[in-house]
């Protein structure tokens, strides 16, 4: 009876070890496969040309012709939002030779229609923003109107009497 129990225990230990070894081997192979897949994706991503905002060197390096436009430096983030929306590849540089500095936006010649649409959307947004009434001016007008309203005069005369 004791021998039978010992044999079963040994068989259980051996089968558990084999199972653990198989699972470990499968896990290692799965990990290696995932690493190779991620490396392949990274390599494919590196081979794609850059999109959106980029340097002038990257933009010119794509050999598709580059054109530029001037833009005021007041709201570059607003312009970049519209350029991303229309899928334009662009580069922004600052022209320091004039005071105040101007910004030049370079873009690919094939993106001219998209760039025009992005610039029109940006201009419409700036125009609408300038057309809106200033909240600060309205607030100052209201504060002046409140100051002109006569306040209630409350006079409290306190008299103290001394009693001895």
Q: Determine the oligomeric state from the structure.
A: single chain
Level-1 CATH class name of the largest domain: Alpha Beta
List how many beta strands DSSP finds: 3
Output the number of helix runs. 5
Strand order of the largest sheet: 1-3-2
Structural class: mainly alpha
What is the count of structural domains?
2
CATH topology of the largest domain: Alpha-Beta Plaits
* Beta-strand content estimate: 5-15%
**Percent range for helical residues?**
55-70%
| CATH architectural category of the largest domain | 2-Layer Sandwich
- Radius of gyration in whole Å, from Cα? 37 Å
Query: Which outline best applies?
Result: flat
Largest beta-sheet details: 3 strands, antiparallel
- How far from one another are the termini? 116 Å
- Poorly predicted regions are none
Organism: Stomatobaculum longum
Protein name: PcfB family protein
Pfam family, one: DUF3801
Note down, in words, how this protein is organized.
InterPro entries: DUF3801. This is PcfB family protein. Pfam families: DUF3801. With 164 residues, this protein is mainly alpha-helical. It has two domains: 1-48; 56-146, Alpha-Beta Plaits, CATH 3.30.70. Helices cover 58% and strands 12% of the residues. The chain has five helices and three strands; from the N terminus they run H-H-E-H-E-E-H-H. It has a three-stranded antiparallel β-sheet. Strand 2 (90-95) and strand 3 (102-108) form a beta hairpin. Helix 3 crosses helix 4. The radius of gyration is 37 Å and the shape is flat.
């Amino acid at each position: 009876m004791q021998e039978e129990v010992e044999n079963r225990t040994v068989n259980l230990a051996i089968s558990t070890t084999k199972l653990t070894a198989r699972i470990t081997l499968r896990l290692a192979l799965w990990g290696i496969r995932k690493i190779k897949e991620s490396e392949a994706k990274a390599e494919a991503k590196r081979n794609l040309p850059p999109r959106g905002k980029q340097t002038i060197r990257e933009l010119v390096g794509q050999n598709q012709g580059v054109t530029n436009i001037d833009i005021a430096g007041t709201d570059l983030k607003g312009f970049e939002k519209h350029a991303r929306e229309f899928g334009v590849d662009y580069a922004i540089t600052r022209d320091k030779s004039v005071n105040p500095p101007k910004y030049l936006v370079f873009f690919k010649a094939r993106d001219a229609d998209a760039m025009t649409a992005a610039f029109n959307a940006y201009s419409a947004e700036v125009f609408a923003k300038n057309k809106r009434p200033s909240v600060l001016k309205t607030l100052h007008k209201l504060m002046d109107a409140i100051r002109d309203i006569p306040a209630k005069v409350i006079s409290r005369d306190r008299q103290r009497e001394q009693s001895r």
